[in-house]
Amino acid sequence: MKLRYALLSDIHGNLAALDAVLADLADWPEATLLDLGDTLYGPLDPRGTWQRLQAESATRRVLGINGNQDRDVIDGTSSTTMDYVLDELGAAGVRWLQRRPASVLVDNLVYACHGKPGDDTRYWLEDLDDGLRALGDIHADAAGIAAEILVCGHSHIPRVLTLPDGRMIVNPGSVGLPAFRDTDPPHAMQTGAPLARYARIEATDRGWLIDHRAVPYDHEQAVEQALDRDRLDWAQWLSSGWA
Ligand SMILES: [Mn+2]
């Protein structure tokens, strides 16, 4: 069996982007799909995204973990967008999220978390002032994790980084939201392109091969959905990849 994993993170209810990524994965049918969280929250199509992932699990192994905004959905944090998401998902959609763990070790090879180990609200790799966190700090967060390769999401920035022990940390970027602005602390994350990002990782005899993909899709469809929900911020992020 080939050790192949498709890393999808931060789909954020963007079904158009997810569909494009799954179509791109048609030539990788045996790969495990590993969803790194922040899967359904957003003013787009949370229900369609949930159902598309369920349908995909009929054809390949699909594993998922929760991110901070999946927890927000479970907790029912109050906002206009959240009311829309909860309405779309209903109790069954929330239960689907509740069954997912915060981190997972897959095949005793791949460790996955949303933010950093033990904290889904923090970036494992990025520092807002220096670009990257200090390598010692990044490495310390990997202590005690018995895995060949480590993967995370949350920052929406595609990246691969090598630890002093030779292991890699891979962030596939975001399938559904190529840029965003956040308030605590105030900052923007932006890729500069309205593309769906994901990554393929494969164990080879030379080590793990990391293939970052940037997939074009009908992002105007997602922009229209955001505008329908009065989310001008999301509409701008989706249309350009700039925040
Ligand atoms: Mn997140």
From TrEMBL:
SUPFAM superfamilies: Metallo-dependent phosphatases. This is DNA methylase. GO terms for molecular function: methyltransferase activity. It comes from the Bacteria. The keyword Transferase applies. One of its GO terms (biological process) is methylation. Keywords: Methyltransferase, Transferase. Residues 4-183 form the Calcineurin-like phosphoesterase domain. Belongs to the metallophosphoesterase superfamily. YfcE family.
